[in-house]
Amino acid sequence: MTKISENNEQDAVIPLRVVVFTGGRGSSAISNQLVGIAGVKLQYIVNGYDNGMSTGEIRRFLGDSLGPSDFRKNASRLALLLESCSRELVSLLDFRLPEPCGDEQALNYLKSLGTAKGLDDAEFDLAFAESLSALRVETRKSLAAKAKQFISFKNNSTSSFKFSDCSLGNIVFAGCYLQQNKNFNAAVADYCALLGLPQDMILNVTDGKNAFLLAKNTDGEILQGEEDIVDANRRNKIDDIYLLSKAAAVTLGKPKTLKDTTLKLNSKVKECISNADLIVYSPGTQHSSLFPSYMTPGLGECIAANTQALKLLITNIHEDTEIVGAAATDIIRKASYYLQEKNKKSLPEPALITHYIINRPAITGASANYIPAGELEHIEDPRKVRISNFEDGVSGQHDSSKVLLPFIDMARNQKRKSRVSVVCLDTRSTNKIVQTAREMQRVKIGLYPCDVTLVYSSNREIPDKLVADDNLHLHYVSPSADGKSYNQQLLIEALALTPDFVCLFESSGMYFGDDIVALVSNLNQNRVDAVWGSRRLSRSDIRESYRYRYRSHLLKGGISYLGSHLLSLAHLICYGRYISDTLSGLKLVNSVHLEGSVGWIDDSSANQYLLARLMRSDGRLFEVPVDFLPMSPNQVTRTGPLDGLRALGVIFAERFRSIFRSKS
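RE: above sequence
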């Protein structure tokens, strides 16, 4: 016998794989929220096209490397949030060399990494000296080895290097790059390992091939790199962006050179996108940090191929220097444009982005710095759009609890398996119980996001190996002497398994196990209270049933036919809801509606009591057609005229009782 533990694994936090497209700092608020959520495995996808400040100098000096800056910034932020290394190491890597800083002074800084001697000298910055002194010996040795690799490369190079205001982390990254035989993606992994970050937490979007980002303004002006694109003095209105080879970038000015170089998607990015439960397109500098990642060949197709993930595009709150005059809908349009490789691909937008987040400022008449929503009527499907005040105060940053948590919950609900207890009522036959289980397995119960336990009682326990599998378990209820009936014992045991839903299955042989699966397929934990199996929705079956049961008793058949409709009308009168088959022997009910006394389960009007509970709570109830076999009254107990009259009385009595309760 397989029993479900009271501390069922479903009660644990459901792990989620969350992939975030980000630049250097644009997703900082999002990272802070995501890192604190239990069970979330984070992976950040970044590109290396930055060429500003010391990153640009590193790229120029190495000659064939992408830029390390955005990888370094993300690594520092995540290391602090995760506490994966000492704060002193992060502080040291974020340290910038003095300005000005000659070669001799810079080399003294780099050579000191391995020994930590002479740091009390006035030559060294106090913050640098304190951070380095606090590091473990092994960490200093690792830093020194990477710095030595860089120094060796410089000594053998004919090019000069400007150390002034250079980030020490960029130099260390360059050492990683040289240690890894100029394999950029391996350098990213090596640098992240230095900070103790999980493997593949930060990934470069491409296979590491060098490329240079350029943009063209709406007036035709060429912007040479990220530094020009985000220049606050320019207030750019960008028409398009390009990723050029080094040779093409050198020959700028010729229109024919504005042709994207051929890039390849990082295989690890492809893998993490394929396995993602939630994909987040974060806000940030769109044209310099985000759109260039989206236009990677094959990325859009990979995202579209993941049909299970939620895909969330978060538009900016405030205007940035490279989206001057843009609206949120412009960001949406361009994101789709680049994800489709500048419209070279034809991918349905819902396959790329399932939801848009657009901020609406809380303050009426907010400053012009806020990005307007834009022409929302141009968004074809309004179901995808979420418009609200998503700002954290007036910080210009998103309140991630408003933005992310609903989608984290949604993604978890998609992954979470509903626990279902199927109660085999009115039988002790092992043959009927095994037949029910076999029918459920035949129509692939395992394909649905549920964990089913068949609760039964019989003269002997059924061996697990005959029925049970990963998605279907058996739970045997032995007869007890506590005065409770057989059906009551089954229901009590079923509820003790703490299921999300209980399926009440009349197991005489009239109903099919296949239809249990049909009911389960309608489950959605946030919205369903009951799924009701209706024989009347299958008109051919109901006609055949009446022919079989009342072929020699036309009057009884007529009374039965009218009586069943009268019960349905009674629910319509009392609760405003027409239930086509109030006497069904197959229904799936949220367990919250079954709490308390279970004595009603043996009443001939059990369904009416249950429906009254559902209707009083405004329960969301679906009716689905089920098949059934008409059986002789000698084999099963039928609802007679007196039972029908009593059922009518129960419907009206329960309704009046609820009215009086609400008034009191």
